[in-house]
Amino acid sequence: MRRSDQLPIELRPAGLYCPAGDFYVDPWRPVERAVITHAHADHARSGHVHYLCAAAAADVMRARLGDIRLQTLDYGEPLVVGRARVSLHPAGHVLGSAQVSIEIDGHRTVLSGDYKLQADPTCAPFEPQRCDLFVTESTFGLPIYRWPDSATVIDQIRNWWHDNAAAGRASLVFVYAFGKAQRLLASLADGPGPVVCHGAVEALNRVYRAGGVTLPPTRAVDDGIDRAALQRALVLAPPSAAGSPWLKRFAPYADAFASGWMQVRGQRRRRALDRGFVLSDHADWPALLQAIDATGAETLRVTHGHVAVMVRWLHEQGLDAGAFETAYGEQPGGDG
How sure is the predictor about 268, in pLDDT bands with cuts at 50, 70 and 90? Predict the structure, then answer.
């Protein structure tokens, strides 16, 4: 691999730039050509002239960004852009999420975007890509982050819902509207009451269903659901709905948050939640190391999260590791 001052990807004020193809990957300022890994707001922003994304992400991109000039590629389909050969490969994060592969003069760079290795029925699973340079996220890049089996967490949520219904209270789960909500819906079997979704969640449910993802029936709170049914309901709402008047109609209810941040007990206490379920759409520490190892890359760049810890660990393994200071990523309370 060429030395770090000659990397095929460079950091510019607008974002991560590929000079050989004259395009950016997930830029945070408006640019002429943007390759987008997925449609979360920190990676897919408005204002670019041309967008490129995976075909599976097209409907979500348009739902979030409106009438944009959008080109799509199927996973694995190559596209020559300048001197670069670009292809997109599943990242396992959310519907349509992709890793961006860039081949230039026999060298291959892969930018991961956000990714996870756990199974998710709503998106294509992560596919490791052999490369010379791997640019990885590190949202949960600390050894304390080790996810329980997702099927076990789903069972915990299902049992909590049943217990609440038996006690005559609704089960309110704060969950990210894009990705996590649909993963949870697709994983839950029939429960003791209706599934009610906040409008922000239901808007993405429609996009997922249109994309061929099977989700159970969901209802809006204004669908004429009687009081007794509401007290047995599972309610999915984004974190932004906490404390809003919208929630009052479900009282009495128990509340919970489904997120990787719930691995740290202090997060649940600060939110005054009844329960915290550890379910993340990002890789935990062991999965990050597994994914990095599978690439065979000897040069690594870390973009966001616990960057310093990850870079130090990679250095200790004898790898050429460094950081790209990007505008991606969320603190506790963001997408996790």
Answer: low
Q: For helices 180-187 and 150-166, what crossing angle results, to 10°?
A: 70
Beta strand pairing call for 320-323 and 275-277: unpaired
∠116-110-334 over CA atoms, to 5°? 40
Q: Are 332 and 269 in contact (CB under 8 A)?
A: no
Where do the structural domains in the chain lie, given as residue ranges? 4-144+281-323, 150-277
Specify the pLDDT at position 5: 55
Q: Counting beta carbons within 10 angstroms of the beta carbon of residue 252, is it exposed (0 to 12), middle (13 to 18) or buried (19 or more)?
A: exposed
Residue with tokens 């943007």: 34
Cα separation, 231 vs 125, in Å, equals 36
Q: In what order do the strands lie in the sheet with 79-81?
A: 79-81, 84-90, 98-104, 107-111, 133-138, 299-305, 320-323
CATH 3.60.15.10 assigned to 4-144+281-323:
yes
Q: What type of residue is 81?
A: V
Nearest CA-CA partner of 217 in 241, 242, 234, 238: 234
Segment 115-130 shows an average pLDDT of 98
Question: Where in 112-166 does DSSP place strands (E)?
Answer: 133-138
pLDDT bracket for residue 222 (50, 70, 90): confident
CA–CA gap between residue 18 and residue 33 (Å, rounded): 10
**What pLDDT score does 221 carry?**
81
Q: Which of 73, 97, 108 is nearest to 87 (CA)?
A: 73
Fold of 150-277: Rossmann fold (3.40.50)
Which of 53, 54, 55, 34 lies closest to 45, judged by CA?
34
3-class secondary structure, 245: helix
Phi, psi of 236 (to 5 degrees): -110, 125
Name the pTM for this structure. 0.94
CA 165 to chain centre: 30
